[in-house]
Amino acid sequence: MKRKWLAAFTVLLLVVMMSFTVSSSAAPSTYVHGVFSTSPLYVKDGVTGNWLTATSGNAIASWTENPLSSGDQGFFNAIVYVGSVKYEFRLVSLSATTTDQIDGTFDIYVNNTLTATVNGTVYGLSQPVGNYFKFYDSAYNWHVSAYITSRLDY
């Protein structure tokens, strides 16, 4: 009698464990992401080559990591001040996205004047709040980085 109860309990336990495994694997994963910053770190000015400490600014990145029927989607904009000098990094053409990065062509403005158009990557986007993300152009002349102050993934 004791063996029957033990066998029945074991089967019941296996069924319950399998139902959790099946239900958790059937849950959809997130593939739309948004990362926001109100705390920029550094800018590298590609004209002067100087590394500069940001004094204020904001940044936003939004992207899909799985191609939609219409293709990947992405947006990136960072406006960072170093004293009175304004740097703006804008994604103007998207090449590709992953869970962690956005690749594309970026326009870079200094004091509202278009200064460069470069290919580059924003990466570190999968990090949790409190960590930072970075942008580098493909020649490592331009850079902007910022702490992630909030994020939304769905």
Automatic annotation (TrEMBL):
Source species, domain of life: Bacteria
Alphabetic keyword roster: Signal
Signal peptide: 1-26
Protein name: Uncharacterized protein
